[in-house]
């Protein structure tokens, strides 16, 4: 029998708490979900570490990866790569702290529980609001990405508002699956599809004569990539916020570790996830920017021309659907668990259970749909939410979580290593706060610029959002 399917019931003492490794079939009590009775009810603690790694990577890698070449265009190739690796290091540590905090506090489910443990009711409610807003705004962005894909594939066959409704219906159907264990195979399919699409574009731009957005006549094309950029403070801050946003899967990791069969294997899944994600970001960002320079199309899947744009969007579609699905499923699961926690309806197939679950999924999905359809300056607004909430979800709380669990114990007999870890935790809090304020400032300027030049779209509009030109 494999390590992940073992029916052995394991207990481990850590920081005064009992860590439970759930078997698949036995009736056991979980600190969050209560009594789980194996085959007769949904098993919310049944995700192995491989499935967790897939869910982690899918929560990070989406169409937003193709914003990285634009970041390199702002910062320059060398500073861009350095900044990307620095952000990767900081967010990897933050993600690691999430797993350690869960082991020390098995009753923690989402980030609001961590806020409650550290700061009481005020911390709980503040982080709960930030979490819901961040995830649902990102889910709305995902629905727009699906509509862009459908527009590109079909050459704008119907009104864009109709495609957003189609995206909503697809996401609601898939996100209503109750357990992450059943979603993890779909996450792997989505991950393979989005990476394949991105690699197609990456290879294509290295082989073509010139990017699709570059002038098509005149002298032979020479990429205008820069090794070092000269951005303004606001431009640099906005670029750094985009890098943080590319690694902003951290708030989803709370829910993922809570549904793992063995939370002690969380770090193993995290190492696989962040290694693959960072390598993909560096390779894709460097190659696409090197060959396209400032002529990277927006969205960048169009950089290799109309035909490959259709192919890439078609292949990427399952990945875009899974991105929005996870970003709808996890906040819905949070609302569902918080509403029914402590009652038998949380894991029993009662009408109250189903009404609460489907109502939470529908509520989160419809809210994300309204955001995606109703806000004229959606792109800059998402940048604002990413800067304001994305950094807050990925850095400052994790620095506080490490200090909460380790500062008091370590100061009794401080070592050099303990002092260095304290300095690092404080640095994460300070740097996260700086990026949040500076990125928000840059995003506000972007919104003002978009509105001043008329760069807005009509709410529930029909205009093509993919930049596709219909063939005659």
Automatic annotation (TrEMBL):
<feature type="transmembrane region" description="Helical">
    <location>
        <begin position="357"/>
        <end position="378"/>
    </location>
</feature>
<feature type="transmembrane region" description="Helical">
    <location>
        <begin position="74"/>
        <end position="98"/>
    </location>
</feature>
<keyword id="KW-1133">Transmembrane helix</keyword>
<feature type="transmembrane region" description="Helical">
    <location>
        <begin position="269"/>
        <end position="291"/>
    </location>
</feature>
<feature type="transmembrane region" description="Helical">
    <location>
        <begin position="153"/>
        <end position="174"/>
    </location>
</feature>
<dbReference type="InterPro" id="IPR013057">
    <property type="entry name" value="AA_transpt_TM"/>
</dbReference>
<comment type="similarity">
    <text>Belongs to the amino acid/polyamine transporter 2 family.</text>
</comment>
<feature type="transmembrane region" description="Helical">
    <location>
        <begin position="126"/>
        <end position="147"/>
    </location>
</feature>
<feature type="transmembrane region" description="Helical">
    <location>
        <begin position="233"/>
        <end position="257"/>
    </location>
</feature>
<feature type="transmembrane region" description="Helical">
    <location>
        <begin position="186"/>
        <end position="207"/>
    </location>
</feature>
<dbReference type="GO" id="GO:0016020">
    <property type="term" value="C:membrane"/>
</dbReference>
<feature type="transmembrane region" description="Helical">
    <location>
        <begin position="311"/>
        <end position="336"/>
    </location>
</feature>
<protein>
    <recommendedName>
        <fullName>Amino acid transporter transmembrane domain-containing protein</fullName>
    </recommendedName>
</protein>
<feature type="transmembrane region" description="Helical">
    <location>
        <begin position="384"/>
        <end position="404"/>
    </location>
</feature>
<feature type="transmembrane region" description="Helical">
    <location>
        <begin position="424"/>
        <end position="444"/>
    </location>
</feature>
<dbReference type="GO" id="GO:0015179">
    <property type="term" value="F:L-amino acid transmembrane transporter activity"/>
</dbReference>
<keyword id="KW-0812">Transmembrane</keyword>
<keyword id="KW-0472">Membrane</keyword>
<dbReference type="Pfam" id="PF01490">
    <property type="entry name" value="Aa_trans"/>
</dbReference>
<feature type="transmembrane region" description="Helical">
    <location>
        <begin position="47"/>
        <end position="68"/>
    </location>
</feature>
<feature type="domain" description="Amino acid transporter transmembrane">
    <location>
        <begin position="47"/>
        <end position="444"/>
    </location>
</feature>
């Amino acid at each position: 029998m494999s390590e992940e399917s073992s029916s052995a019931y394991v207990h481990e003492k850590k920081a005064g708490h009992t860590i439970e490794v759930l078997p698949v079939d036995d009736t056991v009590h979980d600190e969050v979900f209560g009594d789980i009775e194996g085959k007769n009810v949904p098993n919310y603690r049944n995700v192995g570490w491989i499935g967790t790694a897939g869910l982690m990577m899918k929560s990070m890698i989406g169409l937003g990866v193709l914003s990285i070449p634009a970041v390199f265009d702002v910062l320059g190739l060398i500073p861009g790569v350095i900044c990307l690796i620095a952000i990767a290091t900081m967010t990897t540590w933050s993600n690691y702290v999430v797993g350690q905090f869960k082991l020390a506090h098995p009753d923690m489910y989402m980030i609001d529980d961590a806020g409650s443990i550290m700061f009481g009711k005020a911390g709980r409610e503040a982080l709960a609001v930030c979490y819901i807003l961040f995830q649902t705004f990102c889910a709305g962005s995902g629905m727009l990405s699906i509509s862009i894909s459908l527009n590109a594939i079909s050459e704008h066959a119907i009104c864009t508002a109709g495609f957003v409704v189609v995206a909503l219906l697809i996401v609601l159907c898939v996100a209503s699956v109750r357990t992450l264990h059943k979603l993890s195979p779909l996450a792997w399919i989505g991950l393979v599809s989005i990476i394949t699409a991105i690699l197609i574009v990456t290879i294509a731009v290295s082989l073509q004569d010139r990017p699709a957005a570059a002038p098509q006549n005149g002298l032979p094309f020479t990429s205008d990539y820069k090794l070092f950029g000269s951005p303004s403070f606001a431009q640099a801050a906005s670029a750094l916020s985009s890098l943080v946003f590319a690694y902003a899967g951290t708030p989803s990791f709370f829910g993922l570790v809570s549904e793992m069969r063995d939370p002690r294997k969380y770090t193993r899944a995290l190492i696989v996830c962040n290694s693959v994600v960072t390598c993909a970001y560096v390779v894709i960002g460097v190659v696409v920017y090197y060959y396209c320079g400032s002529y990277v199309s927006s969205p960048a899947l169009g950089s290799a021309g109309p035909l490959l744009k259709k192919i890439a969007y078609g292949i990427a579609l399952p990945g875009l659907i899974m991105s929005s699905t996870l970003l709808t499923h996890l906040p819905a699961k949070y609302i569902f668990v918080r509403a029914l926690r402590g009652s038998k309806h949380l894991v029993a197939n009662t009408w109250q259970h189903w009404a609460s679950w489907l109502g939470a999924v529908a509520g989160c999905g419809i809210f994300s749909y309204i955001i995606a359809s109703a806000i004229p300056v959606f792109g800059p607004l998402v940048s604002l939410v990413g800067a304001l909430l994305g950094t807050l979800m990925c850095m400052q709380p994790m620095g506080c979580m490490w200090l909460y669990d380790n500062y008091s114990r370590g100061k009794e007999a401080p070592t050099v290593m303990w002092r260095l870890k304290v300095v690092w935790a404080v640095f994460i809090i300070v740097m996260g706060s700086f990026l949040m304020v500076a990125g928000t400032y840059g995003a506000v300027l972007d919104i003002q610029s978009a509105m001043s030049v008329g760069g807005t779209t009509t709410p529930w509009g029909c205009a093509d959002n993919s930049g596709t030109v219909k063939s005659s």
